[in-house]
Amino acid sequence: MTLSSSGTLGIDFGTSNSAMAWLGAAGGARLIALEGEALAMPTSVFFNAEDSSTHFGRDAIGHYLEGTEGRLMRSLKSLLGSPLLLETTQIGHQQISFQDIIGTFLATLRERATQSLGTAPRRVVMGRPVHFVDEDPARDAQAEASLRQAVQAVGFDEVSFQLEPIAAALDYEQRLTKESTVLVVDLGGGTSDFTVVRLGPDRRPQADRSADILATTGVHIGGTDYDRQLNLAQVMPLLGYKHIGPEQREVPSRVFFDLATWHLIHWQYQPKAIAHAKTLRSNYSDPRLHERLMRVLTERHGHLMAHEVEQAKIRCSVSRADTGIALSLIERDLQARLGVSDMQAHLHDLLVRTVACARECVQRAGLTDASLDAIYLTGGSSALSTFQTALQAEFVGVPLVEGDLFGGVALGLAYSR
Known about the structure:
By secondary structure, this protein is of the alpha+beta class.
């Protein structure tokens, strides 16, 4: 029996980062290295216009930040369930659909799994959020169908799906020595998902775990939404966002929202968008702000700005101290600031909605906080200090357990039946 016919590959195709895990016949899931020794990699694709090569993960971001001519694409998962998915975009001398670009990334994941395992995996369990699209079951079903189609197109014979927070729970269960009732919190780049589930060593062998899942909820808020909010609040005013023009009206804001949203940034580099931005000049009282906006668009600095905001968010969260957002490529010595108080103020509404979704999950399960043994955190955005503070304030006394933030879901997917 080959490895591929006796095991399961779990793929956590994330908005910001992706990971894979393998569970073979011998048991015990393990993460698969994706870039060197790194067990997770950014969900990023860079199409190099200089030599027509394609790059992925950190390599993709590195080429872009080094100034290589080409096209960087991130937050691909955000397109699932969107009308944009089947639209085409210019890559080199050809038009490619966003569905096919997602397929290109998934094909690379399968190739790297094959290199690691020595044979091509045939069975895969894909993670999916509780909701790809909030409050729209038809679009949500279409999003899963589109992802299934992309996965099958790259060569997987058996494709199934598991909710990402349930996968995280199955990974956490491997380390439990007694039965526990747990609120699983999975905060990714695009969604925040919650599950209340009963876990324990005696439950682990059961093939059907549906009775152990007491409630699930989810909201379409994640790390990229935090980044966009911080970008709009701290950086975009330097380009004219909320700037009051000579007629005492704000500069039209659409360009700033799109420029702060990862999967929409590249549209602002198109000739039509640049031409529209030029017409905004009369809306500015300060011409320097408009000059900065035009430089960002014509020199294609939008992705770099978004990257700098994301890194500043991480630094501020980890150090709990103020930090800078470097913008010298736009203008010499130009810099924005990001402080802990800024994070709390600008992210407040998003965090309130996210924590409310966690509370709703516990209420749907018919439990009180006293019934919870732990809150298990996974997903890179769950490390955000402002989120953890808000969660602890809502669930006073319930211990927070931080899991493998980037690999836990992939491991749980491999354990899924």
